[in-house]
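Rather than argue in generalities, we have chosen a single entry, letters for residues, whole numbers for local backbone shapes, without further comment.
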Amino acid sequence: MKTYYDTVVIGAGPAGMAAAVSLKKSGMDKILVVDREDALGGILNQCIHNGFGIHKFGKELTGPEYSDLYIEIASEYKIEFLLNSCVIDIISGRDEKEIVILSEVQGLLRISCKAVILAMGCRERNRGNIAIPGSRPAGVMTAGFAQKMINLHGYMPGRKIVILGSGDIGLIMARRLSLEGAEVKAVIEIQSHPGGLNRNIVQCLDDFGILLHLSHTITEIRGSSRVESVVVAPLINQVNGHKEKEFILKCDTLLLSIGLIPENELSIKAGIILDSVTRGPVVDSNLMTSVDGIFACGNVLHVHDIVDWVSEEAEYCGGRVALYVMGKIARKEGIPVRTGRMLSYTLPSKVVPGEPAILSLRAIAPLENVRLSVKTDKEILYSKKFRKIFPSIMQRIQIDRIPADASYVETYIGEA
């Protein structure tokens, strides 16, 4: 191995591989991609269902098929990967970064580089994040862990299943477990609207006759050595469970599909400022974080609903990093991007006047007959009418050029 690289990419999932390929296409040769797993592909390896690649490759693929296409491209470009290795620190120097890596084979490594791309993905929220009351029996696990058990290792997590949360992983697991002969009693969702894509509601719940209880929550887990039942209650004002209307669902397994959190412990250690809403790094229009020379893309930046957008964002990031390494771009003092009415967040947090920008944003709730707009203090830059808009579907807006005299950019949803 070399001791110096132009760029070190942390994570070899869809974001990391796409960013590395983009760097190679942009003329960068000394690239190292580090991943703690023993195989490339990240979470895609356990996503054996189809629905990937329609936007990126023009055909419907499974997760492993999508990953294999990028692995082939990475092989063609002779990208260097270091697997079974964990980055434990990023130390910023005056002109370069030092990456401290703990490798299963090579021990403790110290690699210097000009730039770093964070592409570590995200993790699932667990029971500790929401503090469900009750006993602590076996059989309570995240939906992603159950997916790994059944798809990669061939183990059934249970036979009588209740799923808390209607995120896409939970919906897909409802279908997967039903196909394997399990009885999925219900999906319980605390919000008044589903958390996953509408196609997954139809294909994974409706097609299998699985009940979806909106505005409900689990108030207690019961069981000694193994889960025996859960207590479900409708919500009062979306906050407290209605005790008088509680009901019990007998089950041996509770799957949690209650949201994803960007994997940013390493970012925090590196001194990177995180966004309070997305829980990912605050970035500018080049996807550079608050620490000069460290960039972020994919689910470590903000949770995406479609892997195609992860790849697209990572490719853009790779291109910008290449320009940074070649000295063609530097951090510029941008203007703030404000998140306005009926939106939960907008990325990036700053854009540069006179330059193009790609804005990613989400509605705060399902809405009908509305108009999504982007404006500055001087003019409207974008305006589009939507018959329906959902928080489960991220919106991406290409702005060809931010006006040179703009003081801020604001995104918002109003009446059509």
Q: What stands out?
A: The chain has a mean pLDDT of 95. The longest strand covers residues 107-118. The two ends are 57 Å apart (CA to CA).
